[in-house]
């Protein structure tokens, strides 16, 4: 099995990378931070896990396209698993969100993941056994204070999950979302905690 896990250098993404690699998958991950990525790659190599990685700012459309070119080349045009994990939360009262906040949260949590699915579709289809997993949040299902824009991004993600599950089943691509609640990670503030 081959897998791409975004945001795999820490938090939930780190755990997903390790779990998939321990099950024998060949995993590629990405991070915005080259130093952090290099440290994780050395860590996984020392554990005997097959993981590669590249620097990618998922907000950048060009970076996303380059990432999928790298993955396509590394995995010979086929991808079994795409885990859309990376995301952020900004905690504010609804009247305090700026247009920039809205754009950042929706772009980081929703837009890039949708685009990555579009780019990955031919690779997932070519594998004959594709699987997309969105890391969503309980905030996309229930109301939590000061997280209205985050919740909207995850609600959008949940609906796209349903649509892609129906529309791409014919291509042997399963699409699911996992919706964790507050998760204790090495991240230190709500702006980067996975909800």
TrEMBL record:
<dbReference type="InterPro" id="IPR045000">
    <property type="entry name" value="TR"/>
</dbReference>
<protein>
    <recommendedName>
        <fullName>Ketoreductase domain-containing protein</fullName>
    </recommendedName>
</protein>
<keyword id="KW-0812">Transmembrane</keyword>
<keyword id="KW-0472">Membrane</keyword>
<dbReference type="InterPro" id="IPR036291">
    <property type="entry name" value="NAD(P)-bd_dom_sf"/>
</dbReference>
<dbReference type="Pfam" id="PF00106">
    <property type="entry name" value="adh_short"/>
</dbReference>
<feature type="transmembrane region" description="Helical">
    <location>
        <begin position="132"/>
        <end position="152"/>
    </location>
</feature>
<keyword id="KW-1133">Transmembrane helix</keyword>
<dbReference type="InterPro" id="IPR002347">
    <property type="entry name" value="SDR_fam"/>
</dbReference>
<keyword id="KW-0560">Oxidoreductase</keyword>
<comment type="similarity">
    <text>Belongs to the short-chain dehydrogenases/reductases (SDR) family.</text>
</comment>
<dbReference type="InterPro" id="IPR020904">
    <property type="entry name" value="Sc_DH/Rdtase_CS"/>
</dbReference>
<keyword id="KW-0521">NADP</keyword>
<feature type="domain" description="Ketoreductase">
    <location>
        <begin position="1"/>
        <end position="176"/>
    </location>
</feature>
<dbReference type="InterPro" id="IPR057326">
    <property type="entry name" value="KR_dom"/>
</dbReference>
<dbReference type="GO" id="GO:0016491">
    <property type="term" value="F:oxidoreductase activity"/>
</dbReference>
């Amino acid at each position: 099995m081959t897998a791409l896990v975004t945001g795999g250098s820490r938090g939930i993404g780190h755990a997903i990378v390790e779990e998939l690699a321990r099950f024998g998958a060949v995993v590629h991950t990405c991070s915005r931070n080259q130093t952090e990525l290099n440290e994780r790659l050395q860590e996984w190599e020392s554990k005997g896990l097959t993981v590669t990685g590249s620097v990618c700012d998922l907000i950048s459309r060009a970076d996303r396209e380059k990432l999928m070119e790298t993955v396509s080349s590394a995995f010979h045009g086929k991808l079994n698993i795409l885990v859309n994990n990376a995301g952020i939360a900004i905690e504010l009262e609804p009247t305090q969100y700026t247009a920039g906040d809205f754009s950042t949260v929706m772009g980081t949590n929703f837009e890039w993941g949708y685009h990555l699915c579009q780019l990955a579709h031919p690779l997932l289809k070519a594998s004959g056994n594709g699987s997309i997993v969105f890391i969503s949040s309980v905030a996309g299902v229930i109301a939590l204070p000061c997280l209205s824009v985050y919740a909207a991004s995850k609600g959008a993600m949940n609906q796209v999950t349903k649509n892609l599950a129906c529309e791409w089943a014919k291509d042997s691509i399963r699409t699911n979302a996992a919706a964790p609640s507050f998760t204790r990670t090495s991240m230190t503030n709500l702006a980067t905690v996975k909800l």
